[in-house]
Amino acid sequence: MRGEKQIYLEGKVEDVMTRQPVCARVDESLERLVELFKTHKFHGLPVLDEEGRLVGVVRDTDITAIFARKDPASRVYRRVEDIMHRPPPSINLKDSIQNAIMKMFADQSRFLVVTDEEGKMVGVVTRIDLIKGIRFREMSGEGSGEARG
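The chain above was modelled as a monomer; its predicted structure follows.
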């Protein structure tokens, strides 16, 4: 039909990711972590060890889950390392946006840590970031499935 557009994805993770993300430290208190979430309004943060290496992720749901337990005042949860997830869900910066979307749905995650070829953290990518890769093109009568760029 004339005037209709076809939706497609274009680009690599590195095209839409957030570089130099806010990170939590493995030894930080939950009080500091809550302040980070309040200040930045993120759904999750990469977690770094004392040497600055990526060791996990912590999500807003990890904090709220403390209160879904029988004893919310439990002293078991004192530091980021007590509630973080290991290993962190990650993707390479050269991967396609399509692969990032598939991984997020498979991992049931709102964000992925982006790594380079050596496995070093270079950023994060969120669902909103991935939407930046959505494009529209005029539909052709021949049904061509390739995007021109």
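Residues 10 and 149 are 9 Å apart (CA to CA).
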